[in-house]
## 1
Amino acid sequence: MLSERKKKILCAVVDEYIDKASPISSKDIQQEYLCECSSATIRNELSALESMGYLIQPHVSAGRIPSEKAFRFYVNELLCENSLTSSEVELIDSYFNRKIGSLEDIIVAVTRLISEITNYTAVVVKEDMSDTITAIKLLDLSNGKMLVVIVTDARVLKDGMLDIPDEFTEQMVAQAERWLNKLFVGKHVSEFLNFTYPYTLVNDEFAQFNVLFKKIIDVLRKQSLYNGMDVSTYGERKTLQHCEYSDVNSAQRFLAELEDKDKIAEMFTYDGGESGSVTVKIGSSDNAPDGCSVVSTRVSLGENVSGSIGVIGPVRMNYKKVLAVLDRISDIIIDLIDRKENK
């Protein structure tokens, strides 16, 4: 548990590092944030935060930089609401005051606007889940594996592979298949994007199948997302202007990550969030690319069409601005979609 002073100092180090991209000294903290504390006191607190894993000292004589742990704490505990400037608000409103006729027009406007204001790469993922499930098949491959096949009125999904529990007989697989069809056939794919597992529908006879049902539903959701998503990005050059990508190798690694559309789609959508929820992923330990952060907000894009908007950029990201921009734009998207559907 951090003391209030440690929290304030840690927040100050993160804010200064986001702004300056260089190690922060005790003098920096004293002059800008804690003039009532002595340099010695601040140095002791910085040393303590370093020993706790929140700060890193690149060189013996250098100041400190925040670790990914510090950024996570900053986002979770220290991040206060940050309002946009009047010019940023005017810029956002001007994008949407013009006539926007289609969903594609909205997506183009959103990606360009997010990148322009935040100076990071903007990502919009559209998930069109309007098709209806007509059948679910579980195929025993006779090698301890089971293939999950989802048939809809528009496509066939057959990329879901599962291990069959040792105790499962052919009759038990057939029973599980019947239950899945009872649960899902006739429903839109969108109805289980944020599905809560219906254990209450599984009577005592099927209680032993709970783990299998959870695995199967996870596969259904994940594979359906991959097959129904469209990924749009904008502003790759803006991200490359940050010092983290100043060398060729770092820039190439970042651009290579953006080329993998399935991976980008998973980072921005496969989090179980509902419309309006915000997700911040920091570093490779948090399922973001190494040295990068991903900030996304779930949005509704119409009936049976949902998605996510957000940015990908360095861990040294201005999270306050990014979250403020996404919050305002997601509200505008909701208003635009409501108006389109009520015409």
## 2
Amino acid sequence: MAVDVLMTAALLFLMGYQFWGDTVHEWVGAGMFVLFLVHHILNGNWHKNLFRGKYPPMRIFLTVIDVLTLFSMIAQMYSGIVLSRHVFAFLPIESGLAFARRLHILGSYWGFLLMSLHLGLHWNVVLGVIKRKFPAAFHGFRYLSFGAGLAVALYGLWVFVKRDFTTYMLLQSEFVFMDYEEAKIQFYLEYLSLMGTCIFISHYMGKILQPLKRKEGSR
């Protein structure tokens, strides 16, 4: 869980490139790469079991999100290394910069949404921690969290439109607009809300698909 928390914090931080500049962005990105490797080592059973067992709807949904997240992370890491001017500047890379720039935009915007969806599919772990810590208040918290989560999700949808995510996800522009005068707190609250939208969608999508898994298992 510590690795997942650090990866989530790094993901949010990296989206605010305009606030920190090249050097910090690259070092945090390199740290994200290390955390990514550790995450996959700790979850090695996922790779071992990928082609084993049945694939009910819930597992299909989970696996599609996980595989797409993996591809987006690989795209970000590769393109980040190619574009690096500091951390990986020692590497003799002199070509492929234009392709790497496009790939980095795609990987960043798709990756942010996919990693947030991935987080939502494992949100029960977070709820489990809350339940263990505050068992008496948990049932009331569930209803409160749904209302708060829905409000955040709706606001996050507005952020998705406001921030022109589709423009960058479809690579309709190769230059990302950055407002260097924007308040950091506003920027990160909006991106946190958009992350909340993805968590809300995938968490409740999982609740819809989970009963289908049980039905199929009982046949």
